[in-house]
């Protein structure tokens, strides 16, 4: 019995002890897993928290960098704009009110051609007369007629180009008339080529009709509208200006709008194409291609000439034609200047680009040859003045007796007085500055 008890008691004790050992091991295993999990959790949580903070910190740095860069960029832009404002630039600026008005009127200057004598022709608004060009960081004073005429004593001044060129000449004559009236001493049968003389200063002023600079022919087409009557020779210069070129001290070139006309193009007296000629089976020239070739050939002659006047090339003059309320109606009836951003340049920007490119190439050649050439860049300041054209007032009181009368609209030429007077203020400033530079250079050599 004892053995049985012992044995009986012993067997249950061993089983219980084994079960306890297994439970302990299992508990320790579970605890280890729990502890490991807790550690992992804490690590992952801290890592995520650190990552989030790092990302926030990185993002904060990125944003700060961006803000810093943005601030620098903004600061740089402001500085550039400030520098631009502090640097005199005759060609950029704004039109500001001028209560004083123009320096002459149709009553004080009798040289204003009828087609641009807008006030006398009955234009009812006069606001366009009361603006002046204010260049960036400097001022543009009125012409001092006596000072200019004295500087031009014993000189000759030639304007070569189209009707816009004539428009500018009459503006200059009127601005000088306060000191001395020009004497009209020559004109051809068409009045396109003319000569004026200032006897008190021995100054001769020429205007030469050469709307293309290159040679052109107008062929009688006997009324056949399908035939183009304008022929342009890209390799022959117009002798109207080249024959007398050697006697000019100052030359102003002003061409452009006539190139829009339909034309047959020649080189070596052979037809090589045409412009604006859809009905002809010829190579088509765009206006900028045609204009570029004509300018290149003409300006090369100037830059390489043995005669070395001071040459000023005036840029394109904008046309402000707009569509009216009626079908096919063209108007230019605005009464105030555009503000910056209110108008884009249109085709004129492209043409001005052609002019600047060809002028810069020719001017570089001119420098090597001792020919001074400068650009009178009036395109943008003129673009802002849609109010400066005659419109219907190119004739005397065009609507008298009939307000609905159809009349010719002129959105190309400029009223006198008017915005075009500024071209000559800039021109005179360029010429006077050039003469001053020459005087300084000559003094330095003595």
Structure report:
The protein is of the alpha/beta class and 446 residues long. The chain is built from eight helices and 15 strands. It has helices spanning 2-86, 145-151, 163-176, 239-242, 287-303, 347-369, 379-383, 421-445; strands spanning 89-97, 131-136, 156-161, 183-187, 194-198, 203-209, 214-218, 230-237, 250-254, 263-267, 270-275, 310-314, 322-323, 330-331, 373-376. The strands form four sheets. The protein has a seven-stranded mixed β-sheet with strand order 4-5-6-3-9-12-15, sandwiched between helices. A hairpin with a 4-residue loop joins strand 5 (194-198) and strand 6. Helix 5 runs parallel beside helix 6. The longest helix is centred in the N-terminal third of the chain and has 85 residues, at 2-86. The radius of gyration is 40 Å and the shape is globular. Residues 1-27, 39-80 and 439-446 have low confidence and may be disordered. It comes from Dioscorea alata (Purple yam). This is PC-Esterase protein.
Entry summary:
This is PC-Esterase protein. It is built from eight helices and 15 strands.
Write the layout of secondary structure elements.
Blueprint: H1 2-86, E1 89-97, E2 131-136, H2 145-151, E3 156-161, H3 163-176, E4 183-187, E5 194-198, E6 203-209, E7 214-218, E8 230-237, H4 239-242, E9 250-254, E10 263-267, E11 270-275, H5 287-303, E12 310-314, E13 322-323, E14 330-331, H6 347-369, E15 373-376, H7 379-383, H8 421-445
Helix pairs in contact: 5-6
Protein name: PC-Esterase protein
Organism: Dioscorea alata (Purple yam)
């Amino acid at each position: 019995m004892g053995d049985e008890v012992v044995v009986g008691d012993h067997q249950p004790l061993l089983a219980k002890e084994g079960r306890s050992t297994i439970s302990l091991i299992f508990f320790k295993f579970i605890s280890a897993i729990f502890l490991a999990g807790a550690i992992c959790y804490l690590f992952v949580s801290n890592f995520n928290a650190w990552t989030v903070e790092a990302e926030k910190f990185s993002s904060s740095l990125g944003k700060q960098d961006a803000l810093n860069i943005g601030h620098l960029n903004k600061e740089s832009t402001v500085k550039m704009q400030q520098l631009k404002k502090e640097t005199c630039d005759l060609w950029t600026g704004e039109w500001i009110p001028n209560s004083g008005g123009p320096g002459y009127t149709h009553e004080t200057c009798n040289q204003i051609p009828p087609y641009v004598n807008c006030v006398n022709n009955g234009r009812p608004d006069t606001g366009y007369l009361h603006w002046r060009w204010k260049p960036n960081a400097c001022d543009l004073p009125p012409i001092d007629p006596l000072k200019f005429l004295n500087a031009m004593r014993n000189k000759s001044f030639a304007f070569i180009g189209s009707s816009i060129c004539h428009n500018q000449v009459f503006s200059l004559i009127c601005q000088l008339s306060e000191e001395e009236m020009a004497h009209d001493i020559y004109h051809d049968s068409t009045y396109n080529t003319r000569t004026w003389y200032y006897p008190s200063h021995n100054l001769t002023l020429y205007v030469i009709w050469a709307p293309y600079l290159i040679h052109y022919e107008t062929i009688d087409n006997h009324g056949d509208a399908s035939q183009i009557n304008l022929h342009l020779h890209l390799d022959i210069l117009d002798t109207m200006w080249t024959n007398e070129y050697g006697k000019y001290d100052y030359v102003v070139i002003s061409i452009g709008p006539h190139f829009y006309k339909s034309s047959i193009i020649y080189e070596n007296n052979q037809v090589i194409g045409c412009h604006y000629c859809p009905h002809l089976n010829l190579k088509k020239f765009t206006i900028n291609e045609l204009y570029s070739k004509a300018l290149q050939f003409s300006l090369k002659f100037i830059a390489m000439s043995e005669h070395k006047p001071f040459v000023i090339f005036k840029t394109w003059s904008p046309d402000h034609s707009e569509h009216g309320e009626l079908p096919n109606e063209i108007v230019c009836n605005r009464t105030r200047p555009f503000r910056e951003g209110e108008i884009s340049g249109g085709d004129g920007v492209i043409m001005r680009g052609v002019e600047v490119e060809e002028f810069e190439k020719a001017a570089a050649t001119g420098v090597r040859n001792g020919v001074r050439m400068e650009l009178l860049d009036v395109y943008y300041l003129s673009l802002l003045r849609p109010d400066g054209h005659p419109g219907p007032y190119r004739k005397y009181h065009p609507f008298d007796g009939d307000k609905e009368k159809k009349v010719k609209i002129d959105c190309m030429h400029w009223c006198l007085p008017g915005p075009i007077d500024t071209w000559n203020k800039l021109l005179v400033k360029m010429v006077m500055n050039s003469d001053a530079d020459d005087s300084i250079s000559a003094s330095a050599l003595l």
